[in-house]
TrEMBL record:
<dbReference type="InterPro" id="IPR017871">
    <property type="entry name" value="ABC_transporter-like_CS"/>
</dbReference>
<dbReference type="Pfam" id="PF00005">
    <property type="entry name" value="ABC_tran"/>
</dbReference>
<feature type="domain" description="ABC transporter">
    <location>
        <begin position="6"/>
        <end position="249"/>
    </location>
</feature>
<dbReference type="InterPro" id="IPR003593">
    <property type="entry name" value="AAA+_ATPase"/>
</dbReference>
<dbReference type="InterPro" id="IPR003439">
    <property type="entry name" value="ABC_transporter-like_ATP-bd"/>
</dbReference>
<dbReference type="GO" id="GO:0016887">
    <property type="term" value="F:ATP hydrolysis activity"/>
</dbReference>
<keyword id="KW-0813">Transport</keyword>
<keyword id="KW-0067">ATP-binding</keyword>
<dbReference type="GO" id="GO:0005524">
    <property type="term" value="F:ATP binding"/>
</dbReference>
<dbReference type="InterPro" id="IPR027417">
    <property type="entry name" value="P-loop_NTPase"/>
</dbReference>
<keyword id="KW-0547">Nucleotide-binding</keyword>
<protein>
    <submittedName>
        <fullName>Iron(III)-transport ATP-binding protein sfuC</fullName>
    </submittedName>
</protein>
Amino acid sequence: MSKVIIELKGISKSFGNKKVLDNVDLQICRGEALGIIGPSGTGKSTILRIIAGLMEPDSGEVYIEGVKREGLIEDRIDGVSIGMVFQQAALFDSLTVEENVGFLLYQNSKLPRSCIRKLVNEKLDMVGLSGTGDLYPSVLSGGMRKRVSFARAIMSNPDNPKQGTEVLLYDEPTAGLDPIASTVIEDLICHLQSIQGAWGSYAIVTHQDSTIRRTTDRIVFLHQGKLQWQGRISEIDNTDHPLIRQFMSGNLSGPIQVAG
Ligand SMILES: Nc1ncnc2c1ncn2[C@@H]1O[C@H](COP(=O)(O)OP(=O)(O)OP(=O)(O)O)[C@@H](O)[C@H]1O
């Protein structure tokens, strides 16, 4: 079996009196493409934020290559770098594409501007956006804005050997995109995984059928705070698990209650 790179053990999280995650165990192995699916509001984005170190669980532990994490991301550097692509591209509209992608290096490193610009251009090339560094986000399409946020997530600081992104977390990367723009993003996710070295492992939260099928090799299904089913992507059409059958068919009848 592949080496476990990230492990959640007994993770619980509540907001107010609503328990969103209830004793969740989850592993991401090196080289794995994990899909996290389930009905809306079931805690998928919350899991990504906990893995990224942006939010602390109420109880449970997060292990990064077997080392227990203490605190949030600003308190320490993990042995594995984790990049996150947010549901909304979350770009600063008053900054250029280059300034958005290089934002953390411009803010936190002593690298010369020319060096950061070179690194940014490398990442823009990788996401198919060569020559867009001087543009502002407002002139880009939704799919292009997503790709800028990919470039930002894979930025690394060459002065810090631990800063190379090794795990990428994608929160609904194809939401709101037309089928063709979604295909471009799905291809890009697979392309980044195929590049030798850095971004071989990822977890992706998505509701889109094509994204589930084209970008994942293992699926976990979350419902009512619990991990209810997991299996290979090839099993998703064959399992008779009632939650998966209802979710994948979009049927209104079944164990998942329709909100509203
Ligand atoms: N910071 C927060 N404060 C209060 N409630 C929150 C917070 N973050 C998430 N929630 C609530 O927790 C629940 C789970 O949210 P989360 O975004 O993780 O779900 P999700 O499965 O990703 O949903 P969707 O598929 O609709 O994006 C929701 O009811 C949400 O309103």
